[in-house]
Design goal:
The protein has about 120 residues and is mostly beta strands. It has no helices and 11 strands. Strand 4 and strand 5 form a beta hairpin. It is globular. The N and C termini lie far apart (about 40 Å).
């Protein structure tokens, strides 16, 4: 069956960096756009970044532009989220997901991982 498994979360001080990974199995990874979402306590899950199946195009929510970078390695069936200059407001559970095309819309993603916690201390 399809599995998306996130890793790389943890506790980091403000200004620090983390690199999230999402390993896919049971799906034709290189056929799908991939996205990262996050959900902070008491808030809805929100779009963070997305990348086309070729990696040629990306999209980011304004609050992470210039700090986060999404990338993918189709040979490894893995998508990454490099997070630099982290802020306390970046604290959330981060999820990766797959969609048919590059989109920011939550409901257009149909495969989801279980999430990884990112906590940024001030």
């Amino acid at each position: 069956q399809v599995q998306l498994v996130e890793s790389g979360g943890g506790l980091v001080q403000a200004g620090g960096s983390l690199r999230l990974s999402c390993a896919a199995s049971g799906m034709p990874f290189s056929s799908y756009a991939m996205g990262w979402f996050r959900q902070a306590p008491g808030k809805e899950r929100a779009f963070v970044a997305a990348i086309t199946w070729t990696g040629s195009s990306t999209d980011y929510v304004d609050s992470v532009k210039g700090r986060f970078t999404i990338s993918r390695d189709n040979a490894k069936k893995t998508v990454y989220l490099q997070m630099n200059s982290l802020k306390p407001e970046d604290t959330a559970v981060y999820y990766c997901a797959a969609a048919m095309h590059l989109t920011t819309m939550n409901n257009e993603y149909f495969y989801w991982g279980q999430g990884t916690q990112v906590t940024v201390s001030s």
